[in-house]
Amino acid sequence: MDLFVKPYFCKIHFIWIFAALTLLTACKDKQTDYSMDYTIEMDTVRHYLNVQLTYTAGADAPDEVVLVMPRWAPGYYEMLDFAKHLTDFKAQDSQDSILTWYKEGMNRWRIKLSADKCAEVSYRIYANQRNVASSRVERDIAFVAPNGVFMYVDGEQDHAVTVRFRLPDGWQHIATGMRPHADDSSAFTAPDFDVLYDSPLLIGNFYTHKFTHEGHDYEIALETPDGAEDMDFEGQFRRIVSAATRLMGDVPYDNYCLIHMGAGGGGLEHLNSQACYTDGTYRFPSRKAEVKFLAFVAHEYFHLYNVKCIRPAELWPLDYDHEAITPMLWVSEGLTCYYEYRLLRDAGIITEEEGLELLSTYFALYAPYEGQRHQSLRQSSYDIWLNFMNSDDNARDVRINYYFKGPIIGLLMDIDIRRKTADQRSLDDVMRLLYNRFYKEYRRGFTEEEFWSVCKEVAGEPLTDIRRLVETTDSIDYAFWLKGEGLEIDTAEWVIRSSESIVNTQTQP
Ligand SMILES: [Zn+2]
Q: Residue 11 C-alpha to ligand 1 middle, in angstroms?
């Protein structure tokens, strides 16, 4: 199908589009002013996304417009400065006259508009990185990470935006969390740029499977599907979803999309999707490797609650121009690591023994860090913008990783709350209360003091010891915490075992 927005588009249809958008969005003042329609083509040989933006504003609109490219992507706490991949920026009006523009700073383009208040903007994005926060265009597939492709009008990221993809011949699918237009499966309208930026797309030829589970629509899109059916990816994911739904008591989306790509590193959570690089196959060399992969899937999925809904105040609303510095990422990331174990165990996917083995990996990863005597968990969250990909030789000596200490604290919080409430309440109650109060009721993030206040409310008394372990470099008395939970830890191997199973093993002939 031909979805290309031709150059004369804004000359002929401007009035009708503007009138329609005015009617459709009359309830939002900002959206009565202009429309933004993007068309994207893929240069599969040179690895570019060719972007065309049709900006059309009313006669009363300002004489200039400033377009802004985000500097970072939520969930990836590093300034990636996507503008560095941009080239060949051009702007012209509806009469094909060149518009004057100026670059302001690293990621802003100020365009002087003609009387028609229309701008046809075009630029190219180099897309050749195997990174979950960056785009990639190849011969028969493209991964579009929207933060590095689409610009918003300065100060107005809450504006609606339409995106159309012109697919190369033979390209068949688009997988994303956004719903396509009813009459055009290659076009999407996002209510604002937050939604667009949090909806990556896998486009081209790949394995895709759609299904419904407990009233919601799902799509599994796999670039390299080898072995996925044999390991029952769909069935395992259904069980993870059901376990999370039982835990949280709510499902905050209509549809959810799993985008799993070929060999590479990392995964990134999104509004109603996850985008991950994998080992390039679902034939795992061991059960342990399979559990590790399923924990990865569960991690990204649980983020949809813990960080997309349950958010530190600094992460909502989003500011794509500045670092979102918060001392609470250990909650967003560390507790999500703890819930990998909980979801897989509660889903019946792994045994308790496998769960303890999974948890043990975090203890073993954390233990060798000399940095635990120099940096607190809270500080590691606060300083992540300095350290996300900072691999200084002394890193392990002076810093810690909240992915490792965070799940340990998650386990201890769970134990502490259960002890304080005679097993009547747990960390789950904290997560549910944060979700229902701050996300559903207040529609905002929580402050650090509000987080500890919720913990106190659930436990009936402050989590003084836990907070000390979060905010200081005090060592953790594992024996104290695990004693009475039927757990023992071998601090030589950093393996947690059920005391009962140790006894049983020891009494076997
Ligand atoms: Zn994460």
A: 46
Q: How many Å apart are CA 312 and CA 316, to the nearest integer?
A: 7
Question: How far apart are the CA of 180 and the centre of ligand 1, in A?
Answer: 27
Judged against a pLDDT cut of 70, whether residue 27 lies above it is answered with no
Ligand 1 centre distance from Cα of residue 390 (Å): 18
Structural domains in the chain, sorted by start: 9-199 (2.60.40.3650), 206-304 (1.10.390.10), 309-509 (1.10.390.10)
pLDDT of residue 33: 86
Could you tell me the distance, in angstroms and rounded to a whole number, from the CA of residue 480 to the centre of ligand 1?
29
Q: Which residue has the higher pLDDT, 21 or 250?
A: 250
List residues, by chain if needed, whose CB lies under 5 Å from ion ligand 1: 333
What is the Å distance from ligand 1's center to 474 Cα? Answer: 25
Q: In whole angstroms, how far apart are CA 9 and each of 5, 53, 153, 399, 451? A: 6, 11, 20, 55, 51
Q: What is the pLDDT of residue 71?
A: 98
Task: Identify the pLDDT of residue 119.
Answer: 98
Q: Give, in degrees to the nearest 5, the angle at Cα 113 between 116 and 8.
A: 50
Residue 175 CA, ligand 1 centroid: distance in Å: 21
Q: Which pair of structure tokens corresponds to residue 379? A: 């500080």
pLDDT value at 32 more than 80:
no
Ligand 1 geometric centre to CA of 19 (Å) = 43
pTM: 0.92
How far is residue 38's CA from residue 3's CA, in Å, rounded to a whole number? 11
